[in-house]
Design brief:
By secondary structure, the protein is α/β, with parallel strands linked by helices. It has helices at residues 2-21, 37-41, 58-62, 66-73, 91-96, 123-148, and strands at 29-31, 47-53, 80-86, 104-109, 112-117. It is built from six helices and five strands; from the N terminus they run αβαβααβαββα. InterPro entries: PDI, Thioredoxin-like_sf, Thioredoxin_domain.
Length: 149
């Protein structure tokens, strides 16, 4: 009976750890790295709102749970993903997208920078901004598609 219990405990452990290993991106902030950034921001029909920060930045630390709260606030929006890049660990990404101060908030669509947020650090204002810019990005993509026809 012991081997059965051992297998059962492995299955239970797997079920507990599975959500941690494969973070669901809807409603959560996705950590982007040099290995994942380019592929993620090129995802078809997906707007990425990305925070670029470093751990030692007092302004980044003052944000507290703002970015996670934003992720939850746009959870129902299928075409919007919220991500973050730690520039101390992913300098190549931050150099490539021209990050010079922290925190910086940028929207990407079809692999290109689409907009930069420079307003107050407030969940509702950030949500309003990303919804407006996502609407612009998807409409511009639709217009480009119609022009090709």
């Amino acid at each position: 009976m012991e081997p059965v219990l051992r297998r059962l405990s492995y299955v239970l452990l797997f079920l507990v750890l599975l959500p941690i290993a494969f973070r669901c991106s809807n409603g959560e902030v996705v950590t982007l790295t040099a290995d994942t950034f380019t592929d993620k921001v090129k995802e078809k029909d997906t707007v990425w709102f990305v925070k670029f920060c470093v751990p030692w930045c007092k302004y980044c630390n003052k944000l507290g749970t703002l970015w996670e709260d934003l992720g939850k606030a746009v959870e129902a929006e299928d075409e919007i993903e919220v991500g973050e890049v730690d520039c101390s660990l992913n300098k190549a990404v931050c150099t490539k997208v021209d990050i010079h101060s922290y925190p910086t908030f940028k929207i990407f669509y079809d692999g290109e920078e689409f907009a930069k947020y420079q307003g107050k650090k407030d969940v509702e204002l950030l949500k309003e901004f990303v919804l407006k810019e996502a609407d612009k990005a998807t409409k511009s993509n639709l217009e480009d598609f119609q022009d090709e026809l």
